[in-house]
Design brief:
Blueprint: H1 4-10, H2 12-23, H3 27-34, E1 39-43, H4 46-63, E2 66-69, H5 73-76, E3 87-93, H6 99-110, E4 114-119, H7 126-130, E5 133-136, H8 149-164, H9 177-186, H10 191-199, E6 203-208, H11 213-227, E7 230-235, H12 236-239, E8 253-257, H13 264-276, E9 281-285, H14 287-293, E10 296-298, H15 309-326
Parallel strand pairs: 1-2, 1-3, 3-4, 4-5, 6-7, 6-8, 8-9, 9-10
Keywords: Aminotransferase, Repeat, Transferase
InterPro entries: GlmS/AgaS_SIS, GlmS/FrlB_SIS, SIS_dom, SIS_dom_sf
Protein name: Glutamine--fructose-6-phosphate aminotransferase
Length: about 350
Amino acid sequence: MTTFMRREIGEQPAALRATLDSLLPRVGEVERVAEGTRQTLFIARGTSDNAAVYGRYLTEARTGRLATLAAPSIATTYKRKVDLSGVLAVGLSQSGRTEEIVETLAWAKDCGAKTVAITNGGPQSPLAEAADLALCTEAGEEKAVPATKTYTTQLAALAVLALGLGADVDAADLDRVPDAVAKLIDDPGDLEAVVAGLAGKPGVVVSGRGLAFSTALETALKLKEACYLHAMGLSYADLLHGPIAVVDEDTPAILVAAGEGPTLPGTVALAERVTGAGAAAYGIGGGDGLARASTAALNGPDLPEWVAPLGLIVPGQLLTEALARRLGVDPDSPRGLKKVTQTE
C-alpha cells in the first residue's frame, strides 16, 4: 500500500512547477514591499522554521542583507515592543492558521515592519490577511502529517523572495528544479542500504553547513517525527565543537551537501573522519566526493548551491518514509502530532 507521504513526495515536481509559475511573475511586488527596508526577520516554527533557515542563509549570502530568525515569544509571551523600522518581516506557516505566527507577524507590523506571508493556506488564510504581501504556494492539500511538498514549495517561495531582494543569482536556475526533483524521486541512490544501516539504531546525527544546514535540520525533524529516532540536526561546525563525541558505531551520521560550493570540502572531510573512527557516514548529495567518503550515499540534485536545498531534502523524505515502514510505523500519522500545531 502506498502511503500518503510517499504519494505527496511524488507530487513535488508538479507542486514546485505550479508554485514557481504563480510566484515568479510577482518578483516586482516583493521589490515594492521591501522598498526602504534593510534587514529581514523570519517568523516561523517547526518545519517552517527549517525553511526559514534556508531563507536566512540565502538572504545573507546572496543579497547582502542582515537576516535573523525571530523569537515569537517576545511578541506572544513577553509582549514586548521592538523597533522594527527598516525591517521586512516574513511569516511562514504551511496552513496559515498557526495563531502564534499570525500574532507575531501582526506584532511585527505594529512595531514598524513591512510584512510578507508565505503560506499554502491561500489568500484568505489568517496569515495572508495579516500581511502586506502574501506569497501563496501551490502545493495542494497535504494529508500526511509530516510535511513534504508544503516544505519544498516554501523553499521555492523563499527563492522568489530572494530574487525580489536583489539576490545575485540566475533566476533561470529555478526552471531546472522540478525536473531535478523528479529525477531524485526516480533514482534516490542507495536507499535500501541507508535504511538497513539506520533500522537498528536508536539515534543519528544529521549535519550540513551553510545553505544545506536547513536540509540537515529538516531531515532530522522528519526522522524524529515519523521514525521516532533521536535525530540531532547540527551544523558541522557545531558538530566538531564537541557533539561529534556521540557519533559511534551505534550513532551514525547523515551528512548533507550541495554538489558545489564552499561547504562541500568540509563535509567530505567530516565523512572521512566519521568512517575513520569506525562509525557509519551516509551522504546526501555532495557529488562523487561525498559518495566515495561515505558508507553509503543518496543522490543529490544537479543544481547550483543556491537552489540545491529544494532537491536535497527529497532523498531525506524518501529515507524517512521507507525507514518508518521498515520500523512498523505509519508515516502518515505519527503519534502525538497534528497537521496544525498551536503553541500555548
